[in-house]
Design a protein that fits this description.
mainly alpha, single chain
Length: about 100
């Protein structure tokens, strides 16, 4: 039988996935569960600041004219850059887990 805390945990994860534009951040929440509410607050703050900073930065870039920024070479290697970043995050998690 599920306890109230189990229901709250599952419900909060489902709500996070439903309403968050950054559902890819869920693994970080799961990894940080051992740090309790302080870790949850820190992760939430980081996600919030990162999301708002990204929105402001990309809106600013769009306003000044994204066509002036030459991103063709970056677009060509987008998958490789994302793969490298995900591998780097995995390595950091392994290093800081100890």
């Amino acid at each position: 039988m599920l306890t109230k805390t189990d229901v709250a945990a599952v419900s909060s994860l489902l709500l996070l996935l439903t309403f968050s534009p950054c559902e890819a951040f869920v693994p970080f929440y799961v990894t940080g569960v051992r740090y309790g509410w302080r870790g949850f607050a820190l992760l939430t703050t980081i996600l919030t600041v990162g999301t708002i900073a990204g929105m402001v930065a990309f809106t600013f870039l769009a306003l000044i004219g994204i066509e002036q920024v030459k991103l063709r070479s970056f677009e060509k290697y987008e998958a490789a850059v994302m793969g490298a970043l995900l591998c780097a995050v995995g390595v950091l998690i392994i290093l800081f887990e100890q």
